[in-house]
Amino acid sequence: MRRRTVAKAGGWAAQAPLLLDVAASWELRLRADGKADGTVRSYVDSVRVLSHYLAEHDMPVDVEGVQARHVGAFLAASAAATSAGNAHKHFRNLRVFFAWLVADGERVAASPMAGVERPVVARGRTRTRALDDAELTALLAVCSGDTFECRRDTAIVRILIDNGMRLSWLAGLRYSRDDAEANDVWPAEHRLRVPLKDDDVLLAPIGHKAAAAVDRYVRARARHPHAGSPWLWLPIRAGTAAGEHRLTSTGIQQMLERRGREAGVRGRLHPHRFRETMADDYLRAGGDPLNLMRIVGWKSVEMARQRARTAERSAGERARAEHARLSPGDRRD
Protein backbone atom coordinates (compact mmCIF):
# COMPACT_ATOMS: atom_id res chain seq x y z
CA MET A 1 0.00 0.00 0.00
CA ARG A 2 1.36 3.39 -0.97
CA ARG A 3 2.31 5.76 1.85
CA ARG A 4 2.82 9.49 1.94
CA THR A 5 6.31 10.90 2.32
CA VAL A 6 6.46 13.70 4.86
CA ALA A 7 9.17 16.06 6.09
CA LYS A 8 10.23 15.33 9.63
CA ALA A 9 12.18 17.39 12.12
CA GLY A 10 15.84 17.65 11.12
CA GLY A 11 15.08 18.08 7.44
CA TRP A 12 14.86 14.41 6.46
CA ALA A 13 11.89 12.78 4.81
CA ALA A 14 10.14 9.59 5.81
CA GLN A 15 7.12 7.57 4.83
CA ALA A 16 4.10 8.12 7.03
CA PRO A 17 3.26 4.90 8.90
CA LEU A 18 -0.09 3.21 8.51
CA LEU A 19 -2.65 3.50 11.29
CA LEU A 20 -2.32 -0.19 12.07
CA ASP A 21 1.48 0.16 12.19
CA VAL A 22 1.26 2.48 15.18
CA ALA A 23 -1.57 0.65 16.96
CA ALA A 24 0.87 -1.54 18.92
CA SER A 25 2.87 1.53 20.02
CA TRP A 26 -0.39 3.22 21.01
CA GLU A 27 -1.30 0.21 23.13
CA LEU A 28 2.11 0.26 24.84
CA ARG A 29 1.70 3.96 25.61
CA LEU A 30 -1.74 3.43 27.11
CA ARG A 31 -0.52 0.61 29.32
CA ALA A 32 2.48 2.67 30.40
CA ASP A 33 0.02 5.37 31.46
CA GLY A 34 -1.74 2.82 33.67
CA LYS A 35 -4.98 2.61 31.67
CA ALA A 36 -7.33 -0.24 32.57
CA ASP A 37 -7.50 -3.25 30.25
CA GLY A 38 -11.01 -2.36 29.10
CA THR A 39 -9.97 1.20 28.30
CA VAL A 40 -6.95 0.00 26.32
CA ARG A 41 -9.09 -2.41 24.30
CA SER A 42 -11.62 0.30 23.56
CA TYR A 43 -8.98 2.79 22.34
CA VAL A 44 -7.15 0.26 20.17
CA ASP A 45 -10.41 -1.13 18.77
CA SER A 46 -11.45 2.34 17.56
CA VAL A 47 -8.18 2.71 15.63
CA ARG A 48 -8.51 -0.75 14.12
CA VAL A 49 -12.15 -0.31 13.08
CA LEU A 50 -11.37 3.11 11.57
CA SER A 51 -8.46 1.66 9.59
CA HIS A 52 -10.60 -1.18 8.22
CA TYR A 53 -13.37 1.22 7.21
CA LEU A 54 -10.93 3.53 5.41
CA ALA A 55 -9.30 0.63 3.55
CA GLU A 56 -12.67 -0.78 2.46
CA HIS A 57 -13.73 2.62 1.11
CA ASP A 58 -10.46 3.45 -0.66
CA MET A 59 -9.57 6.28 1.73
CA PRO A 60 -6.11 7.09 3.14
CA VAL A 61 -4.98 4.70 5.87
CA ASP A 62 -1.69 6.34 6.83
CA VAL A 63 -1.45 8.62 9.85
CA GLU A 64 -0.75 11.71 7.75
CA GLY A 65 -3.40 11.24 5.10
CA VAL A 66 -6.47 10.86 7.30
CA GLN A 67 -8.57 14.02 7.19
CA ALA A 68 -11.66 15.24 9.05
CA ARG A 69 -13.99 14.18 6.23
CA HIS A 70 -12.66 10.63 6.36
CA VAL A 71 -13.22 10.32 10.10
CA GLY A 72 -16.63 11.96 9.75
CA ALA A 73 -17.68 9.39 7.15
CA PHE A 74 -16.51 6.58 9.42
CA LEU A 75 -18.46 7.92 12.40
CA ALA A 76 -21.62 8.32 10.30
CA ALA A 77 -21.31 4.74 9.09
CA SER A 78 -20.70 3.52 12.64
CA ALA A 79 -23.79 5.30 13.93
CA ALA A 80 -25.90 3.82 11.12
CA ALA A 81 -24.58 0.26 11.60
CA THR A 82 -24.59 0.22 15.41
CA SER A 83 -25.67 3.28 17.41
CA ALA A 84 -24.92 6.94 17.98
CA GLY A 85 -23.50 5.99 21.37
CA ASN A 86 -20.98 3.67 19.76
CA ALA A 87 -20.01 6.36 17.24
CA HIS A 88 -19.57 8.82 20.10
CA LYS A 89 -17.24 6.36 21.83
CA HIS A 90 -15.11 6.13 18.68
CA PHE A 91 -15.08 9.93 18.46
CA ARG A 92 -13.71 10.25 21.99
CA ASN A 93 -11.13 7.52 21.49
CA LEU A 94 -9.89 8.82 18.15
CA ARG A 95 -9.58 12.36 19.50
CA VAL A 96 -7.13 11.07 22.12
CA PHE A 97 -5.34 8.88 19.57
CA PHE A 98 -4.69 11.64 17.02
CA ALA A 99 -3.62 14.03 19.79
CA TRP A 100 -1.04 11.42 20.80
CA LEU A 101 0.17 11.05 17.18
CA VAL A 102 0.73 14.80 16.93
CA ALA A 103 2.41 15.08 20.36
CA ASP A 104 4.69 12.12 19.62
CA GLY A 105 5.75 13.49 16.24
CA GLU A 106 4.13 10.74 14.18
CA ARG A 107 1.80 13.20 12.45
CA VAL A 108 3.03 16.57 11.18
CA ALA A 109 -0.40 18.01 10.39
CA ALA A 110 -2.80 19.03 13.12
CA SER A 111 -5.28 16.48 14.42
CA PRO A 112 -8.17 15.92 12.00
CA MET A 113 -10.56 15.66 14.95
CA ALA A 114 -10.77 19.44 15.27
CA GLY A 115 -12.87 19.44 12.12
CA VAL A 116 -15.05 16.46 13.02
CA GLU A 117 -18.54 17.01 14.38
CA ARG A 118 -19.25 15.19 17.63
CA PRO A 119 -21.96 12.51 17.17
CA VAL A 120 -25.20 13.41 18.93
CA VAL A 121 -26.48 10.80 21.36
CA ALA A 122 -30.18 10.96 22.14
CA ARG A 123 -31.19 10.93 25.77
CA GLY A 124 -32.37 7.64 27.15
CA ARG A 125 -31.01 4.18 26.51
CA THR A 126 -31.40 2.69 23.04
CA ARG A 127 -31.41 -1.07 23.15
CA THR A 128 -28.91 -2.99 21.09
CA ARG A 129 -30.67 -4.98 18.39
CA ALA A 130 -30.83 -8.66 19.28
CA LEU A 131 -30.05 -11.39 16.76
CA ASP A 132 -32.91 -13.33 15.23
CA ASP A 133 -33.06 -17.11 14.77
CA ALA A 134 -32.12 -16.94 11.09
CA GLU A 135 -29.00 -14.91 11.87
CA LEU A 136 -27.92 -17.29 14.63
CA THR A 137 -28.46 -20.29 12.36
CA ALA A 138 -26.44 -18.67 9.56
CA LEU A 139 -23.69 -17.75 12.00
CA LEU A 140 -23.32 -21.30 13.26
CA ALA A 141 -23.35 -22.54 9.65
CA VAL A 142 -20.41 -20.36 8.56
CA CYS A 143 -18.43 -21.46 11.63
CA SER A 144 -19.08 -25.16 11.06
CA GLY A 145 -16.20 -27.36 9.96
CA ASP A 146 -13.38 -29.53 11.26
CA THR A 147 -10.47 -27.08 11.09
CA PHE A 148 -8.93 -25.64 14.26
CA GLU A 149 -10.34 -22.22 13.38
CA CYS A 150 -13.86 -23.55 12.83
CA ARG A 151 -13.83 -25.49 16.09
CA ARG A 152 -12.59 -22.45 18.00
CA ASP A 153 -15.06 -20.03 16.43
CA THR A 154 -17.97 -22.42 16.95
CA ALA A 155 -17.08 -22.81 20.64
CA ILE A 156 -16.91 -19.04 21.10
CA VAL A 157 -20.21 -18.42 19.32
CA ARG A 158 -21.92 -21.26 21.22
CA ILE A 159 -20.83 -19.76 24.57
CA LEU A 160 -22.07 -16.33 23.52
CA ILE A 161 -25.42 -17.70 22.38
CA ASP A 162 -25.85 -19.80 25.49
CA ASN A 163 -24.49 -17.49 28.18
CA GLY A 164 -24.14 -13.99 26.73
CA MET A 165 -20.71 -13.70 28.35
CA ARG A 166 -18.92 -10.35 28.39
CA LEU A 167 -16.08 -10.02 25.89
CA SER A 168 -13.39 -9.40 28.51
CA TRP A 169 -14.54 -12.44 30.51
CA LEU A 170 -14.55 -14.63 27.42
CA ALA A 171 -11.07 -13.53 26.32
CA GLY A 172 -9.70 -13.98 29.84
CA LEU A 173 -10.61 -17.66 30.18
CA ARG A 174 -7.60 -19.84 31.01
CA TYR A 175 -6.99 -23.49 30.27
CA SER A 176 -4.82 -26.07 31.96
CA ARG A 177 -5.28 -29.80 31.77
CA ASP A 178 -3.14 -30.48 34.84
CA ASP A 179 -3.62 -27.49 37.19
CA ALA A 180 -7.17 -26.93 38.46
CA GLU A 181 -6.22 -23.53 39.89
CA ALA A 182 -5.09 -22.33 36.46
CA ASN A 183 -8.10 -23.76 34.64
CA ASP A 184 -11.43 -21.97 34.06
CA VAL A 185 -13.02 -24.51 31.74
CA TRP A 186 -15.00 -27.62 32.76
CA PRO A 187 -17.05 -28.84 29.77
CA ALA A 188 -18.07 -32.07 31.53
CA GLU A 189 -19.54 -30.02 34.37
CA HIS A 190 -21.13 -27.50 31.98
CA ARG A 191 -19.53 -24.45 33.57
CA LEU A 192 -16.88 -21.80 33.08
CA ARG A 193 -15.14 -19.87 35.84
CA VAL A 194 -14.85 -16.10 35.51
CA PRO A 195 -12.67 -14.22 38.04
CA LEU A 196 -14.32 -10.94 39.09
CA LYS A 197 -13.24 -7.98 41.19
CA ASP A 198 -12.47 -8.31 44.90
CA ASP A 199 -11.57 -12.01 44.51
CA ASP A 200 -15.17 -12.84 43.58
CA VAL A 201 -15.85 -15.61 41.04
CA LEU A 202 -18.73 -16.21 38.65
CA LEU A 203 -19.44 -19.83 37.75
CA ALA A 204 -21.06 -19.36 34.37
CA PRO A 205 -23.28 -22.26 33.23
CA ILE A 206 -23.32 -23.50 29.65
CA GLY A 207 -25.65 -25.99 27.97
CA HIS A 208 -24.95 -29.35 26.36
CA LYS A 209 -24.22 -28.00 22.87
CA ALA A 210 -21.91 -25.27 24.13
CA ALA A 211 -20.09 -27.75 26.37
CA ALA A 212 -19.68 -30.19 23.46
CA ALA A 213 -18.35 -27.39 21.24
CA VAL A 214 -15.81 -26.34 23.90
CA ASP A 215 -14.71 -29.97 24.38
CA ARG A 216 -14.29 -30.39 20.63
CA TYR A 217 -12.17 -27.23 20.48
CA VAL A 218 -10.02 -28.28 23.46
CA ARG A 219 -9.21 -31.56 21.69
CA ALA A 220 -8.04 -29.61 18.62
CA ARG A 221 -6.20 -27.15 20.87
CA ALA A 222 -4.05 -30.00 22.24
CA ARG A 223 -2.47 -30.32 18.77
CA HIS A 224 -1.74 -26.57 18.43
CA PRO A 225 1.96 -25.54 18.40
CA HIS A 226 1.28 -23.30 21.40
CA ALA A 227 -0.94 -25.68 23.36
CA GLY A 228 1.14 -24.84 26.46
CA SER A 229 -0.24 -21.29 26.52
CA PRO A 230 -2.21 -20.58 29.71
CA TRP A 231 -5.03 -18.99 27.68
CA LEU A 232 -7.98 -20.96 26.34
CA TRP A 233 -8.38 -19.23 22.98
CA LEU A 234 -5.36 -19.49 20.66
CA PRO A 235 -4.72 -17.59 17.41
CA ILE A 236 -4.13 -19.24 14.06
CA ARG A 237 -0.73 -17.65 13.54
CA ALA A 238 0.91 -14.73 15.35
CA GLY A 239 0.53 -13.80 19.00
CA THR A 240 -0.05 -10.41 20.60
CA ALA A 241 2.23 -7.38 20.54
CA ALA A 242 3.40 -8.43 24.01
CA GLY A 243 4.45 -11.84 22.69
CA GLU A 244 1.58 -13.83 24.23
CA HIS A 245 0.01 -16.67 22.31
CA ARG A 246 -3.67 -15.92 22.84
CA LEU A 247 -6.72 -14.56 21.09
CA THR A 248 -7.35 -11.23 22.81
CA SER A 249 -10.63 -9.34 23.11
CA THR A 250 -9.71 -7.46 19.95
CA GLY A 251 -9.00 -10.73 18.15
CA ILE A 252 -12.35 -12.19 19.21
CA GLN A 253 -14.13 -9.01 18.09
CA GLN A 254 -12.38 -9.19 14.70
CA MET A 255 -13.44 -12.80 14.31
CA LEU A 256 -17.06 -12.00 15.16
CA GLU A 257 -17.20 -9.14 12.67
CA ARG A 258 -15.76 -11.35 9.93
CA ARG A 259 -18.11 -14.24 10.71
CA GLY A 260 -21.01 -11.81 10.93
CA ARG A 261 -20.29 -10.53 7.42
CA GLU A 262 -19.99 -14.09 6.11
CA ALA A 263 -23.36 -14.98 7.68
CA GLY A 264 -25.09 -11.85 6.39
CA VAL A 265 -25.85 -10.53 9.89
CA ARG A 266 -27.34 -7.05 9.75
CA GLY A 267 -25.12 -4.42 11.39
CA ARG A 268 -21.86 -4.94 13.23
CA LEU A 269 -21.70 -8.17 15.19
CA HIS A 270 -20.38 -7.68 18.71
CA PRO A 271 -20.74 -9.67 21.98
CA HIS A 272 -23.35 -7.38 23.52
CA ARG A 273 -25.80 -8.38 20.82
CA PHE A 274 -25.48 -11.98 21.99
CA ARG A 275 -26.04 -10.81 25.57
CA GLU A 276 -29.24 -9.04 24.54
CA THR A 277 -30.39 -12.08 22.58
CA MET A 278 -29.63 -14.54 25.37
CA ALA A 279 -31.47 -12.48 27.98
CA ASP A 280 -34.53 -12.09 25.75
CA ASP A 281 -34.62 -15.79 24.85
CA TYR A 282 -34.20 -16.88 28.46
CA LEU A 283 -37.06 -14.77 29.76
CA ARG A 284 -39.38 -15.57 26.83
CA ALA A 285 -38.88 -19.25 27.64
CA GLY A 286 -40.12 -18.59 31.18
CA GLY A 287 -36.79 -18.11 32.94
CA ASP A 288 -36.68 -16.31 36.29
CA PRO A 289 -35.20 -12.76 36.06
CA LEU A 290 -33.25 -13.20 39.30
CA ASN A 291 -31.73 -16.44 38.07
CA LEU A 292 -30.83 -14.68 34.83
CA MET A 293 -29.06 -12.04 36.93
CA ARG A 294 -26.94 -14.74 38.56
CA ILE A 295 -26.18 -16.46 35.26
CA VAL A 296 -24.94 -13.39 33.39
CA GLY A 297 -23.29 -11.72 36.37
CA TRP A 298 -25.44 -8.62 36.78
CA LYS A 299 -24.85 -6.87 40.09
CA SER A 300 -28.00 -4.76 40.05
CA VAL A 301 -31.44 -6.20 40.74
CA GLU A 302 -32.84 -3.27 38.77
CA MET A 303 -31.29 -4.69 35.61
CA ALA A 304 -33.23 -7.91 36.17
CA ARG A 305 -36.40 -5.93 36.76
CA GLN A 306 -35.92 -3.97 33.54
CA ARG A 307 -35.48 -7.23 31.65
CA ALA A 308 -38.60 -8.67 33.25
CA ARG A 309 -40.63 -5.62 32.20
CA THR A 310 -39.32 -5.92 28.65
CA ALA A 311 -40.18 -9.62 28.59
CA GLU A 312 -43.67 -8.85 29.89
CA ARG A 313 -44.25 -6.33 27.11
CA SER A 314 -43.07 -8.89 24.56
CA ALA A 315 -45.36 -11.52 26.06
CA GLY A 316 -48.27 -9.10 25.84
CA GLU A 317 -47.53 -8.44 22.18
CA ARG A 318 -47.42 -12.18 21.46
CA ALA A 319 -50.69 -12.68 23.33
CA ARG A 320 -52.41 -9.99 21.27
CA ALA A 321 -51.04 -11.45 18.05
CA GLU A 322 -52.25 -14.88 19.05
CA HIS A 323 -55.70 -13.54 19.89
CA ALA A 324 -55.88 -11.88 16.48
CA ARG A 325 -55.16 -15.28 14.93
CA LEU A 326 -57.44 -17.33 17.20
CA SER A 327 -60.16 -14.82 18.09
CA PRO A 328 -63.30 -16.81 19.10
CA GLY A 329 -65.52 -13.98 17.96
CA ASP A 330 -63.93 -13.78 14.53
CA ARG A 331 -64.46 -17.52 14.02
CA ARG A 332 -68.20 -17.16 14.44
CA ASP A 333 -70.56 -15.47 12.02
From TrEMBL:
<feature type="region of interest" description="Disordered">
    <location>
        <begin position="307"/>
        <end position="333"/>
    </location>
</feature>
<dbReference type="InterPro" id="IPR004107">
    <property type="entry name" value="Integrase_SAM-like_N"/>
</dbReference>
<dbReference type="GO" id="GO:0015074">
    <property type="term" value="P:DNA integration"/>
</dbReference>
<dbReference type="InterPro" id="IPR010998">
    <property type="entry name" value="Integrase_recombinase_N"/>
</dbReference>
<protein>
    <submittedName>
        <fullName>Integrase</fullName>
    </submittedName>
</protein>
<dbReference type="InterPro" id="IPR002104">
    <property type="entry name" value="Integrase_catalytic"/>
</dbReference>
<keyword id="KW-0233">DNA recombination</keyword>
<feature type="domain" description="Tyr recombinase">
    <location>
        <begin position="126"/>
        <end position="324"/>
    </location>
</feature>
<dbReference type="GO" id="GO:0006310">
    <property type="term" value="P:DNA recombination"/>
</dbReference>
<dbReference type="GO" id="GO:0003677">
    <property type="term" value="F:DNA binding"/>
</dbReference>
<comment type="similarity">
    <text>Belongs to the 'phage' integrase family.</text>
</comment>
<dbReference type="InterPro" id="IPR011010">
    <property type="entry name" value="DNA_brk_join_enz"/>
</dbReference>
<dbReference type="Pfam" id="PF02899">
    <property type="entry name" value="Phage_int_SAM_1"/>
</dbReference>
<dbReference type="Pfam" id="PF00589">
    <property type="entry name" value="Phage_integrase"/>
</dbReference>
<dbReference type="InterPro" id="IPR013762">
    <property type="entry name" value="Integrase-like_cat_sf"/>
</dbReference>
<keyword id="KW-0238">DNA-binding</keyword>
<dbReference type="InterPro" id="IPR050090">
    <property type="entry name" value="Tyrosine_recombinase_XerCD"/>
</dbReference>
<keyword id="KW-0229">DNA integration</keyword>
